[in-house]
Amino acid sequence: MLFALAGNGRMGVTVSRKVGGAVIRNRVKRWIRECVRRRAAEFPGRLDVVVVARPAAATAGHAGICRELAGLARRLGGASEVRR
Fold it and tell me: In this predicted model, what pLDDT tens digit does every residue of 11-40 receive, in sequence order?
């Protein structure tokens, strides 16, 4: 899940305990940060983005998470307006 508002281009990641233990949560956070870092050009600039990982993220793997974030970035880039 991804939330975005007009802002300074910051990114936040939230992974609850429903996703798994500490090791799994940290792994999912690393995967999300790495994907966003590599695909930063695909995200519209000047947006504050919060990524909320769901329990399925633990079994999706790195490639699955990157695919999902790329799709969300495309949808976000196509949005005509961003709420403030």
Answer: 999 999 999 999 999 999 999 999 989 988
